[in-house]
Design goal:
By secondary structure, this protein is of the alpha/beta class. The chain has a single domain, classed as 3-Layer(aba) Sandwich (Rossmann fold), CATH 3.40.50.300. 38% of the residues lie in helices and 18% in strands. It contains 9 helices and 9 strands. The strands form 2 sheets. A 7-stranded mixed β-sheet has the order 1-9-8-7-2-6-3. Strands 4-5 form a two-stranded antiparallel sheet. Helix 3 crosses helix 4 and helix 7 packs across helix 9. The longest helix is centred in the first third of the chain and has 32 residues. The radius of gyration is 20 Å and the shape is globular.
């Protein structure tokens, strides 16, 4: 299957360099968890599933249960390494959260992956407290974006308060007991004034967003991902992502957009053909350029890549070699 950059990541040819990833087929990956049973029920999966996403018990058991087991192994080993390092340096053993970054395009399903991992990891005895934070809360308010003339670049790196986001994650990694992030409303498509998301003494923090795996911004020495212990990239062919984006737009038009308080309410009242044409324009002029210019290049920085095919079904897993 062709992915956005021609050769799928992890493939080889006579001209291609050796890949830093082990390529694992779906069937091979699924075998890794055959001795375990998914702790989630179908109703619980229904609550986790994003609009337009495909997710069932088989997908959870075949793909995400092995991933949660691998992550639990990484968490356990990292905790032991912290303790050993503190003992070697004669420091007081301080509990440090394990941070997972989840990146990928708009509509690729990274939010569903993040919610699912939060639920699965919280069932492990070593990680009962799992927090999930999206980078949407660190977008500049719409008034600021409009003032700067970049409202049509919302979701691009420059639309975020990157210093605030970096400080937030640095505070978590320093062991600060309580940190807060601004709250974002998908209904109003804006930051909610005065509201905060509180993260208090977590075992694991999942940071989900479009650009969380980017290298340092110009003039900065540290990247957000420097604080991550494990990095996941959710991948799919661009034609599939576009199809999922349009399907989600049509579903939202029949649901959330009908709320008069919705920023996108106008699309629910618009002629269906015109509304869909507008969605295609948004994809072509905003989401696709952001994917090609800023997001896809961060895929090679991941620890693990989930490569999806039709209906959000993961077809193979790429795991960085140790």
């Amino acid at each position: 299957m062709a992915y956005v950059t021609g050769l799928p990541l992890g493939s080889t040819s006579d001209e291609a360099p050796v890949s830093p990833f082990d390529e694992i087929s779906r069937s091979q990956w699924a075998e890794l968890a055959k001795s375990s049973t998914s702790p989630l029920t179908e109703p619980e999966i229904e609550k986790i599933r994003g609009l337009g996403d495909f997710l069932d018990l088989a997908e959870v058991s075949d793909i995400y249960l092995p991933l949660s087991q691998l992550l639990n192994l990484y968490v356990t080993q990292t905790q032991e390494l912290h303790a050993d390092s503190d003992a070697f340096l004669n420091r007081t053993n301080k509990r440090i959260p394990f941070i997972i970054g989840v990146a990928g395009s708009v509509a690729v399903g990274k939010s569903t992956v993040s919610r699912l991992l939060k639920e699965l990891l919280s069932r492990w005895p070593s990680t009962p407290t799992v927090a999930l934070v999206t980078t949407d809360g660190f977008l500049h308010p719409n008034a600021v974006l409009e003032q700067r003339g970049i409202m049509d670049r919302k979701g691009f790196p420059e639309s975020y308060d990157r210093l605030a986001l970096l400080k937030f994650v640095a505070d978590i990694k320093s062991g600060k007991e309580e940190v807060s992030a601004p709250l974002y409303s998908h209904l109003t498509y804006d930051i909610v004034p005065g509201e905060q998301v509180i993260v208090s003494s977590p075992d694991v923090v999942i940071i989900e967003g479009l650009n969380v795996l980017q290298p340092p911004a110009l003039g900065q020495e540290v990247a957000l991902s420097d604080y991550f212990d494990f990095k996941i990239y959710v991948d799919a062919p661009t034609q599939e992502i576009e199809s999922w984006y349009l399907d989600r737009f049509k579903a939202l038009r029949e649901s959330a957009f009908r709320d008069p308080a919705s920023y996108f309410h106008r699309y629910a009242e618009m002629d269906e053909t015109k509304a869909l044409d507008r969605a295609k324009e948004i994809w072509r002029t905003i989401n696709l350029p952001n994917l090609m210019e800023n997001i896809i290049s961060t895929r090679s920085r991941a620890t693990l890549v989930l490569q999806k095919g039709e209906k959000h079904r993961v077809e193979r897993v790429l795991l960085r070699k140790i």
